[in-house]
User: Fold these one by one.
Assistant:
Number 1:
Amino acid sequence: MNALLSSARNALLAGIVLALAAIAVGIAVERVDALGFTSFVLRAIHVVAAIIWVGMIWFVNFVQHPAVVAADDHGRATLFRLVVPHVATIFRHTSHLVLLSGALLLLPTGYLLSPWVFGAQFHMSMTKALLLWGAAAGAVAMWVFVHMIIWPNLQIVLGEKAANAEAKAAARAKVALYARANLLLAIPVTVLMVAAAHLF
Ligand code: HEM
């Protein structure tokens, strides 16, 4: 047990093995068809990646940003060196995974190319489709904010791109503003996705 909990990496790997073992037992007991299994795998990846991305959005807004504002110059430099770049790496990469897994999940769930996947008889409720596509549009906006606005400006804040003090202050304000915009969008996007999957 000690070895499993000796590092975050080991604990993570142990959690993944535990999840896979439980699913393997479930599948051994009751058969799953290929499409259902594909949908499940994509959904599991999508949900875990979404938890991490939205968790980072939460952390940035309610923990990291207040700490950066409250810190003195030395503390801020430490945060910019030891914390902020790691947080940015995690949310940049998980945002790609959420988008990719979500886009692939459109196929086995019937939102896209359903006649091709399920045949002409398949019926998708209009309300369900509107909820999903509305949420997906919000999620794409969040992805654009991360990659077109937050990350380029964060690079200025972190000193990875040359800029004077005035440009750095403007970049910091922009990062904070769009981090809040992503917090605002994360709630309806998540709730609408869950509604599309479970409400009707
Ligand atoms: C911030 C971004 C996103 C978050 C937080 C998010 C979250 C979720 C959650 C929590 C579910 C419900 C899973 C379940 O309960 O079964 C879900 C389902 C789904 N998501 Fe996303 N998602 C995001 C982005 C996207 C994007 C960009 C797409 C498509 C391009 C997408 C496509 C889907 C699909 C197809 C489902 C399955 C719906 C169903 O089963 O009817 N998601 N998402």
Note: The longest helix spans residues 34-70.
Number 2:
Amino acid sequence: MATTISDLVASNHILSSQGVLDNYGHVSARSPARSDRFLLSRSLAPGSVTSEDILEFDLDGTVVGGAAKRVYLERFIHSAIYRARPDVMAIVHSHSPTSITFSISKVPLRAVTHFGAFIGDRAAVFEGDPEGKNPTLLIANNELGTRLAAALGDNQMILIRGHGDVIVGPSVSIATTRALNAAKNAKVLLDGYRLGGEITSLTKDEDNALTKLEASDQEQREWTTLKKSVGGR
Ligand SMILES: [Zn+2]
């Protein structure tokens, strides 16, 4: 449990310092002790999160032991995805500018780089204001969270129109590096469109082969370096 909490705190600081998380994004981890619970900070800017701020939630998005502190309005993103996806151990919800750009365009966000393979051939865009009934675009209730989880399906990333993205992974380290790499892949793709000409995406085989490499030593080396950079061990 202590390692998961320290990874979660480090992830908040890394993604905040790299500009992927703004003051309103969040990261969670499934509890290593109970698969029907997850860990998420109280409502706080990610750069300020410490281990004392981490709360435990059940899969309805309710704080275990009662909410003595303010909690994130969009915690239902996490609870619904953990319910729907037993393989998911960590979730990042960001308002990353590059993701928002693709979320408002008909041009698809797709994997064009080795480090962006997990995105696949087209990241879906979730409509957060179905039938004009949710004009804040926030995923602030269980119904919207459940719809978002269904739209994510078996994928690793989904965009939310005019709002941001959700990225999932089998560990805090991989979800974090995926969030960083999603932004890098999007920048390369945007530059490719500016350059002009035909864009070449990764093939399905390349996507699969590269996604398998994520859990390799190289990925761990990246995580260890990132964690040290924010004072973690
Ligand atoms: Zn949000």
Note: Residues 172-195 form the longest helix (24 residues).
